[in-house]
Prior knowledge:
This protein has a single domain, classed as START domain (Alpha-D-Glucose-1,6-Bisphosphate, Chain A, domain 4, 2-Layer Sandwich). Helices cover about 25% and strands about 35% of the residues. It has three helices and nine strands. Strands 1, 2, 3, 4, 5, 6, 7, 8 and 9 form a nine-stranded antiparallel sheet that branches.
Amino acid sequence: MLSLHCCNILQRYCFMTEFESKHGQVSTPPYQLYMSFTDMRNFVSMLPADRRNDVQADFDTITASIQGFNIGVKVHERVPYSRIELVDWGAPLAFHIVLYFDPGSGDNAYGTDFHIKVEAELNLMMKMMLGGKVKDALDKIVDTLVDASHGKMPEGFDPSQFDPSRFGGGSGV
């Protein structure tokens, strides 16, 4: 899908650019992992306490102030235990995010094949500046989720600030 729009600031053409993460084998069943992501308030629970003040969330939306920019995400569609689609909501650029919760296979038959796809409206300069960083960030999210499903927490993560009951019965991710 390629759309052509005039950017309001730079007056240059923007194109829908697609980024896709690698696939990660999460050791949690799709239904359980999916339920962790359905409520946007769960994302606030994962933040350190000192960062939560800049983030507001309800079931369908989450907004934050990041380096002076307000950015928001809204759930566009939920397909139970399969995917969640998010769209920009008050963000300075148009984007669409899809989180996939596919059934695992082989050694991970009871787990989830998790991956993320992002489409963002970027001009050529922004695409060149951000392209690799977006892909790296998506891959890091997948790796962190896979590691967490195997009991390895990210560096600097303080479990005492995490409320696992928000993620379906206290079992964590």
